[in-house]
Amino acid sequence: MGLRISILVLIAIPFSSAVALVFLYFADIPVSNMVVFSFILVLGMVVDGAIIVAENIHRHIERGEAPDTAAKTGIDEVGLPVIAADLTTVAAFLPMVLVPGIMGDFMGVMPRVVSVALLGSVLVDHFVIPTLAAYWYRQRKPVQDESVVFASIAPGQTNGNQAIKMRPNIGMGTRVYAKALSLALNNRYLVLLVCVTSLFATKALFLQLGFEFFPASDRGQFTIKYELPLGYSIEETLAASKVFTDPLQKWKDRGILRHYVTAVGSAGGLASRLENDPANGPEFGEVMVELLSPLDRQIHEQEIIAKLRRQIVPLPGMKYSIHEVEDGPPGGSDVAVRLTGENLDQLGRLGQQITSNLKKMHGTVDASTDYRPDNPELVIEPKPNVVGMFGLTEAQIAQSVQLAIAGDSQIRITMDDEDITLRLQLAPEYQKSLRSLERLTLTAPDGRQAPISQLANLSKGLNLYSINRYERDRAVVARCNVVHPTLPDEIFEFLESDVLPEMGFRQVQGNSMVFLGTPTTPSEGIKAQFTGENEERDKNFMYLLYSMLLGVVLIFGILVTQFNSFRQSIIVMLTVPLSFIGVTLGMWACSFPFSLASFIGLVSLTGIVVNDAIVIVDFMNRARKRGLPLRDAIMEAGINRLRPVILTTVTTIGGLLPLLLNISGGAEFWQPLTAAVVFGLAFASVLTLLVIPVAYSVAYSFVIVPNKS
What we know:
Layout (H helix, E strand, L loop, with lengths): L2 H8 L1 H16 L5 H30 L4 H27 L7 H7 L1 H28 L12 H5 L3 H10 L5 H15 L1 H20 L13 E7 L6 H7 L1 H12 L3 E8 L5 H4 L10 E8 L9 H11 L7 E6 L10 E7 L2 H17 L3 E6 L5 E8 L1 H6 L4 H13 L1 E8 L2 E7 L3 H4 L2 H5 L2 E3 L5 E3 H4 E8 L5 E2 L2 E10 L5 H15 L2 E3 L6 E4 L9 E5 L1 H31 L2 H8 L1 H15 L6 H13 L1 H16 L4 H11 L1 H20 L9 H29 L10
Antiparallel strand pairs: 1-3, 1-4, 2-3, 5-14, 5-17, 6-14, 7-12, 8-9, 10-11, 13-14, 15-16, 16-17
C-alpha cells in the first residue's frame, strides 16, 4: 500500500507502548517476563485498528477522493467497528484480573498491559492517523480496473458492472478469493456442515494432546537438593556434595556450565521439595547450577539433567532431587497422592507402597514420601528416687543433655575491643557416644555432684521426624516428578487404574481425584487424594474457564450494542468456537500438550478473532443499506476487507512468530501460548473471509414479513 501508509500504521506501536509504560510506572508494576511478553503480544494487536483505518482511507484515495474527504469518510465507515473490536479484545483479557491466588498475581499484569495499550491505540486510530493522512496523501486519479472478475461472479451484466465499481484495483489474490467466496456461497450449507463436523472431530483430537501445568523451559538454571540420614553434621553434608559437584565439574570443563554453588545446613534443602514438610537441619544441602546461555551451547538443559542423573552415584541413605527453574508460579511436585486417616503407621506403609510403585514407573524421578520414621532420638528415663534424693528435677537433667548436644551461645567475651560470642557444647565425636553423655555431672543444691548415669537411664531409638496433618487428619504424601515426554496425567491414570485398586481403594463417585479405602483391606479407613501440580492445574483451568465465559458474555454484549442485532452478534461469535479448530491443529502439529499457557492463549484469542468479523459484518450492513442485493453486498464486503484482514493477521502472527520458533532459546514456556494464538488466529482469518459471509447469507436468506391482516 506504500511507504506513507506503513509509517501511519507504525505510529500506533510507540504511542500505545508509551501509554502502557506510563501506566506501569504509576501502577508500580515491575518489569517481568510476563510484562515483556504482554508487550510482544500487544505489538501485533495495536496495529490492527491502525491498519483497518489506514487501509480504508487508502481505498477511498485510490478511488479518486480528496485526502481530507477520504480521511473523514474512511474513519466514519470503520470508526465504531474498530472501537468495538478493541473493546472485545479488552473484554476477553480483562476478566483474567479476577483470577485469585499466585496464578492471578503471575498473569494479572498481562490483561492490564494489553487493555491499556489497546485503549491507547484507539486514540491513534481515530485522531492521529486520519489527521496525518489528510496532510500526507495527495489526490490521485482513480486506478483503472485490472479485471472484470466481478462481472463473471455477480449475476447479470448490471450487477457485474456495479461490482466493478466496488473495487477498482483487483489483483490475482482478490480474484482467487472472489471465486472461492462465490463457490462457498453456492454451497453454503455444505460449508457449515463441514465446519460443524470439523469442530466435533477436533474435540477427539484435543483429548489426545495430553495436559500439563506449565511446560519446562530451558532457563539454564537448576538446583540439586539432597538429604543425608539424620545426625550428619554440616561438615559431612558439605563433603557429601562431591557426589554432585564432581560430575558438574566435568560439565564445566566441557564449557557448558558457567558455575555452581553449594549451600548446606539451611532450611532451603528438602523443605522446598516437600512443600509442607518443615524438615531442616545440617543433613540438608543444595547445589545451585547455572549453565551457559542456550545460544552458547548445543545441548538442552533437560538433556544435561538426564545425563547428570546417570552420572550421580548417591551415598547410602542419601536422597536427592533436581529442580529446574520454572517460568510460571510454583505448582508443587508433578504427581502427589495425599493419604489421610488416624493410623499413622498404616498411612506410612501405604505411602511407602505408593512411592515404591512410582519408582518403578517409566518417566518418574525423585519419588519420595514425607513419612520419616527414622529420626534418631535420645531417650532419657529419670530415676525418680535418686533424682529426688539429690534435690534435682527431671527438667534439669533434660536441660543438661540438651546443653551438651545443642550447645549454648550465651557466653560472650571481649578481645581486642571486640565482643565475641562463644558456643559451648560437646565435640561432635562425644555427642554420638552414650558413655560420654552418661559421664556428664550435675551439681545438687547442696553441692554434691552426680553423673547422669546415676540419675537416669539413657538409650538411643528411632521415631517420627514430624506428624503432618491435613484438615485435622494425620496425613502422609507420596510424590514424584516426571521427565519429558512423560506427562503427569499418564502417571495419575496408572495410579487410578492399577496401583490404588490393588491397595483396596475405590474411587468416589463424581470425584475422580478422591479414593476411599474399603473394609477388610490394608487401606481401610484411609482417604487418598491426587494433589500436587495436577491439582493446581485443574483449579487454575477452572478459574480461566470462568474468565473465558465472562469474557464471552462481555464480548456478546458489546456486539449487540454495536449491531443492535442478536442475529449478527451470533454470526460474529461463530469465530470463537471455530478458532478452537486452529488451536487444536496447531498444538497437535507442534506436539505441544495443552497447558495452562495454552489456555491463556485460548482465552486471549476469544477477543482477537472477532475483530475482523466485526468490520466485515459492518461493511455488509452498509452495502445492504445502499440497496445492494444480499449476495452482492456480501461479495463487496468480503473483497473490500480482504486486504486489511490479511494484513492484521500477518502483523499479529509476525509479532509472535519469533517466540513460537524459539529463535533465541529459553522461550519454551511461551511457545504453547503463542501457538494457540498464531494457529487459532490464522484459522479464524480463513473463517472470517469465508464462513462468516456464508453464515450471514444463511441468516438473512429467510426474512419473516409480518402479515398486515
